[in-house]
Specification:
Layout: H1 2-5, H2 9-41, H3 46-52, H4 54-74, H5 76-93, H6 103-129, H7 137-192, H8 214-234, H9 237-244, H10 250-275, H11 285-307, H12 312-341, H13 347-375, H14 378-396
Helix pairs in contact: 2-3, 2-5, 2-6, 2-7, 3-13, 4-5, 4-6, 4-13, 5-6, 5-7, 6-13, 7-10, 7-12, 8-12, 8-13, 8-14, 10-12, 11-12, 11-14, 13-14
Length: 406
C-alpha cells in the first residue's frame, strides 16, 4: 500500500469514493435484475413491475436536485456514506416473507435505494472535476470516460450477479449476501473517508439548486430524452419479452444483459479515442448532435425486424449490440460535457441538476416501458425510443459549438 500513501490527499479520497461507488454499483445492478425477474416469476404484470421502480426513479429526481446542494454544504464523502447506509437498509427491507412484500413496501424500499444510488453517483462524478486543471480538458474527458465506463461495466456484472444469485440462492439469499457485502464496505468507508471533498467555500443557498447556465440546461434536457429513449424499452419490456416470447431462462436473461452492459461500459471508456476528429480537441455541441443522429435509427431497425418477422433472435441481438455501442458514446460525451460546463466551487450543484434530468428521463422511460409494452408490445416501445433520440439530437444543436484547442 506504499504507492497509495504516496498519492495526494485529494486523489486518495477520490479513489476511496470510486471504490465505494463500484461496490454500490454491483448491488444496484443486481437488485434491478432480481426485482424484475423475481416479481415476474410471481405473476406481476409488466406495468406492475414498472411501478415497483416508480419511486426509485422519482426520488432519483429529488435526490439529485437536493443532493448536489447538500454535497456542496457538507462534503461529498458524507453524502457517499449516507448513500451506502441507505442502500444497506433498503436491501434489508426486502428480506420479509414473500406475502408481506407488497407493491407499496417494495416501492418504498426502491425509493430508498434510488436515493442511495444518486447520492453515490453525484458524489463520485462531482469529485473528478476538482482533480483536473481547467486547462486540461482532454485529460478530464479521459478521466470521466474511464470512471463512467468502469461503473457501467460493473453494473453489467451486477446484472449477471443478480440472475446468478436468484438461480443459486433464491431471492432472500441473494439479498442477504449483497446486504452483508455492502455493510462491510460502508463500515470501511466510515472509517477512512475523512476529507470534506467538494465542500463549497461559500455555502450555497437552497435557491441555487436550479441551474442558471443555458449550456447546462440544454445538456440536461438532451440527457433526459436520451435516457428515456433507452429505458422505454430496456428496463421492463426487454427482459419480459426475452422471457415470454423467446423463452429465455432467468440465467440467460441476466447473463445477456450483463454482457451487454459490460460491453457498453468498455465502449464508454474508449469514447475519447472514437469521438475526437482532431488531436488536441474535445467534443462540443456538434459532436453530441452527430452521435445522437447516428443512434437514432437503431431502435427503429429492431422494430422493423420484429414487424416483418426477420429472424427475431439475430435481429434483436444485433440491434442491441449496435444500440449499446452508439448509446455508450452518447452517454460518455454527455458525462464529459457536464463536468466541463460545471463550475469548480460547488460543482455538485451543477452535476446534481444534470443528473436530476437524467433521473427524470429514467422515470419517464420506466413508466412508459411497462405501460407501452403491456398495451402495444415491444415494437411501439422501440418507435417511441427513436422519437426520443430525435428530440435529444435536436436539443444538442443548442449546445456550445466552439472546439477547445489544447
Amino acid at each position: 500500500m506504499g504507492w497509495f500513501s504516496n498519492l495526494s490527499s485529494d486523489i486518495r479520497q477520490y479513489l476511496l469514493i470510486t471504490g465505494n461507488y463500484w461496490a454500490f454499483t454491483l448491488t444496484d445492478g443486481a437488485l434491478r435484475m432480481l426485482v424484475v425477474l423475481h416479481f415476474h416469476q410471481l405473476g406481476y404484470t409488466p406495468l406492475a413491475i414498472a411501478s415497483l421502480f416508480l419511486f426509485y426513479e422519482f426520488f432519483g429526481v429529488v435526490t439529485n436536485l437536493l443532493g448536489g446542494w447538500l454535497g456542496a454544504r457538507i462534503g461529498l464523502n458524507k453524502t457517499m456514506n449516507i448513500g451506502l447506509g441507505l442502500q444497506v437498509f433498503a436491501l434489508s427491507m426486502l428480506l420479509l416473507p414473500s406475502p408481506q412484500l407488497t407493491v407499496a413496501w417494495v416501492m418504498l424500499a426502491q425509493a430508498l435505494s434510488g436515493i442511495a444510488k444518486d447520492l453515490n453517483k453525484m458524489s463520485a462524478k462531482s469529485s473528478i472535476k476538482l482533480l483536473v486543471d481547467d486547462n486540461a480538458q482532454d485529460t478530464l474527458y479521459r478521466w470521466v470516460a474511464l470512471l463512467t465506463g468502469s461503473k457501467n461495466t460493473l453494473k453489467g456484472v451486477g446484472f449477471f450477479l443478480g440472475g446468478a444469485l436468484l438461480t443459486l440462492l433464491g431471492f432472500k439469499g441473494a439479498i442477504t449476501s449483497m446486504a452483508g457485502m455492502l455493510f462491510v464496505v460502508w463500515i470501511l468507508s466510515l472509517l477512512f473517508l475523512k476529507k470534506d471533498l467538494g465542500k463549497a467555500k461559500n455555502k450555497p443557498k437552497f435557491s441555487q439548486i436550479f441551474s442558471k447556465s443555458s449550456a447546462i440546461n440544454y445538456l440536461s434536457a438532451a440527457r433526459l430524452f436520451l435516457f428515456a429513449s433507452r429505458d422505454v424499452w430496456f428496463v421492463v419490456a426487454l427482459p419480459v419479452f426475452l422471457s415470454t416470447q423467446l423463452n429465455w431462462s432467468h440465467w440467460e436473461i441476466g447473463s445477456f444483459i450483463a454482457i451487454w452492459i459490460i460491453g457498453y461500459g468498455i465502449v464508454q471508456g474508449f469514447a475519447p479515442r472514437l469521438t475526437k476528429k482532431v488531436k488536441g480537441t474535445v467534443p462540443d455541441g456538434n459532436t453530441a448532435f452527430f452521435w445522437a443522429i447516428a443512434l437514432c435509427g437503431t431502435p427503429a431497425f429492431i422494430a422493423l425486424a420484429i414487424m416483418f418477422n426477420v429472424n427475431l433472435t439475430i435481429a434483436l441481438i444485433t440491434g442491441l449490440m449496435i444500440f449499446g455501442f452508439l448509446f455508450a458514446i452518447n452517454s460518455s460525451l454527455h458525462s464529459f460535457l457536464i463536468i466541463s460546463y460545471a463550475t469548480d466551487d460547488g460543482v455538485s450543484l451543477d452535476v446534481g441538476f444534470y443528473y436530476m434530468a437524467n433521473a427524470m428521463g429514467r422515470l419517464m422511460g420506466t413508466i412508459l416501458s411497462g405501460w407501452l409494452y403491456q398495451s402495444y408490445g415491444l415494437t411501439v416501445c422501440l418507435f417511441v425510443s427513436t422519437f426520443f433520440i430525435a428530440i435529444s439530437a435536436a436539443i444538442s444543436l443548442s449546445l456550445p459549438k466552439p472546439v477547445i484547442t489544447l
